[in-house]
Amino acid sequence: MDFYSTKTPSYKVDLKEAVIRSLPPDNGLYMPEQIPALSDEFWANWREYSFAELGFQIVNPLLGNDIPEADLRAIVEEAINFDAPLVKLTDTLSILELFQGPTLAFKDFGARFMARLMGYLTRGDDTMLTVLVATSGDTGGAVASAFHKVPGTRVVILYPKGKVSALQEKQLTTLGDNIHALEIDGTFDDCQRMVKAAFLNRELSEKLNLTSANSINISRLIPQSFYYFHAARQLPEGMLPTFVIPSGNFGNLTAGLLAQEMGLPIKHFVAATNVNDVVPNYLKTGDYQPRPSTATISNAMDVGAPSNFARMNEIYSGNWEHMRERIEGYAYDDATTRDAIKRTAESHDYQVCPHTAIGVLAAEEWATSHPEDHNVVLATAHPAKFLPTMEEELGAGATHIPERLACLSELPKEATLMQPDEQALQDWITNTL
Ligand SMILES: *Cc1c(COP(=O)(O)O)cnc(C)c1O
Fold it and tell me: Which of 1, 37, 282, 429 is least crowded, fewest Cβ atoms below 10 Å from its Cβ?
């Protein structure tokens, strides 16, 4: 399968280039040249496969010409080694728990698949692959965990000192081995600037085989389509889901659109955002107005210029009417979100993180005009990752902390403190790696 740039459709690259380089030189986004429809044989068996086998059967028509079947199956099996159960709250509302992976957010799906695919595509290369990533929270933990001990790879994570939560910091700084954490005495923007400058240094970039684990990498999107199928098959046969997706950069929603293009029957999509409502506004007005982001309690969705919008546009050939026929958009502020956390715990005895709470709100709003739909809200993170907010709404000790998060607080942090200086990073890379 070749991949083309959304900005210059005639510009095409192979799988390795698209995955390792992440972005085309024209700053567009890579898209698969074709989205193959799944076979009759798939549809005869899709309800019976294990989750990993389901993933393999979905990805094989896309990448089967690039990767031999046994290797591709092994990559999917190693990546998708945890479940995504559908929890029914009412006859018309279910929650798809995407937070059962090692770092307790849906980003584990994309990061684990990408890490194994990158390891596979660069096997036999002379130079080790060095993944450079700046994080403001969730992404760094998922990427670190995903690449931990993957042969032929090492990861350098830059995070802003004092600006990530205590548990998030532990997720970045306690793995060791091929994972290096740099604590930058500055902001997230400083971290991003330093990473960019290192990439722009061609000599360094080529010598160290630098790559980015950015969320716009196409290989993070592909495995996220798997759980739309897995959710649909957990509903009674013949019941079509309406998917409600808490969104920031819109990668998760775009993966759902891919699933639909591959032939999965889906009733509707509902995009749910916090006050960073650029896409809901576009769906209402046809006017796309990106702007600087506003900070909220659902911080993983604080995005003012969603990068995957270019891919959504591509799927609908830039046709606003067509996009509107498939996707509804709603937005909510922090006070409403807090109220939803409390109400969901009270009425359903079920705790949702601030991002998922926005999905629950959107499902409720959609249900007022579509009472017959069965809404599936994607639960993007475990509530324990956002403990301060949960405690403010539900009281101290109300939220269960899973063992793999709780045990992190015992582990010693290992990070290198660094000034927010582009040269300091490049010197460190040259001298240390
Ligand atoms: C990244 C993230 C989101 C936003 O997902 P997109 O694919 O960027 O729309 C929502 N919730 C949580 C918890 C996240 O980590």
Answer: 37
Residue 150 identity: V
- The DSSP-derived string for 76-115 is HHHH--S---EEEEETTEEEEE---STTSBTHHHHHHHHH
Phi and psi at 86, nearest 5°, equal -100, 120
Encoded tokens for 201: 């240094």
CA 215 to ligand 1 center in whole angstroms: 10
- Residue-wise pLDDT for 389-424, tens only, equals 999 999 999 999 999 888 888 899 999 999 999 999
- Separation CA 327–CA 270 (nearest Å): 6
Rg (CA), the chain: 21
Q: Which amino acid is at 313?
A: N
Q: How many domains does the chain have?
A: 1
Task: Classify 144 as helix, strand or coil.
Answer: helix
Paired residues of 269 in beta bridges? 243, 327
Whether 394 maps to a domain, the answer reads yes
pLDDT of residue 127: 85
75: in domain = no
Tell me, yes or no, whether 251 lies in a domain: yes
Residues spanned by the domain of 341 = 81-103+221-402
Please answer whether residues 16 and 121 qualify as being in contact, where contact means their C-beta atoms are separated by less than 8 angstroms. yes
- For residue range 26-48, list pLDDT tens digits in order: 888 999 999 999 999 999 999 99
Residue 283 resides in a domain: yes
**Residue 260 is part of a domain; what is its CATH number?**
3.40.50.1100
Query: 274: Cβ–Cβ under 8 A, 6 or more apart, which residues?
Result: 294, 296, 297, 298, 301, 302, 331, 332, 333, 334, 337, 358
Three-state secondary structure call for residue 315: helix
Our separate counts of H helices and E strands in the chain read 20, 14
Compute the distance from residue 10 Cα to the ligand 1 centre, in Å. Answer: 31
pLDDT tops 80 at residue 136: no
d(CA 343, CA 350): 9
> Which residues contact ligand 1 via a Cβ below 6 A?
105, 107, 138, 246-252, 300-301, 355, 380-381
Residue in 217, 276, 355, 378 to alter for ligand 1 test, most ligand atoms within 8 A of Cβ: 355
CA of 128 to the centre of ligand 1 (A): 30
Answer yes or no: are the C-beta atoms of 300 and 380 closer than 8 Å: yes
| Ligand 1 centroid distance, CA of 244 (Å) | 13
